[in-house]
Design brief:
mainly beta, 137 residues, two-stranded antiparallel ribbon
Length: 137
Amino acid sequence: MTLIDITAGPFNFKARFEDQSAAKTCAKFRSLLPYRERIIHVRWSGEGCWIPLGELDLGLGFENHTSYPAPGQFLLYPGGISETEILLAYGGVQFASKMGQLAGNHFLTVVEGNENLAALGKMVLWQGAQAIEFKIP
C-alpha cells in the first residue's frame, strides 16, 4: 500500500493510492508529484472541494469511476463534457457540473486525518480557497 501526504489549509492527511482499481490514474498523478495547487468548494456536487484543471489533457480515460464518492475519496475527472478536475468528498456528494452528472476516477482514499475532512470543507466554503500539497513521504 503506497501512501501520500496531503496538507490542505492547516490540516494534514495521509491517503492510499488505489493502484489495484485505478492504476493509470495513480501513475499519472504520481508523475505530477509533488503537486501544489489551491482547493475551492464545489459548485453543484454537495459537500466536496475541487481543484479545477481546465482543459488539461492528462491522456486518461475512465477507470474505477463513480458519481458518488464517500467522504475522504479523491476523484480525478479526465475531462470530456466538463473541464478536467480533482474532487475531494468531505460529506455527501453527487458529482456534477453545469453540464450534469459526472463520474470521476477514484484514485486516492484518505486513511489518516478523516476527522478533519468536514472542518476543511467548511473552511473552504466560508473562508475561500486553501493551499493544498500532495507529496510522497
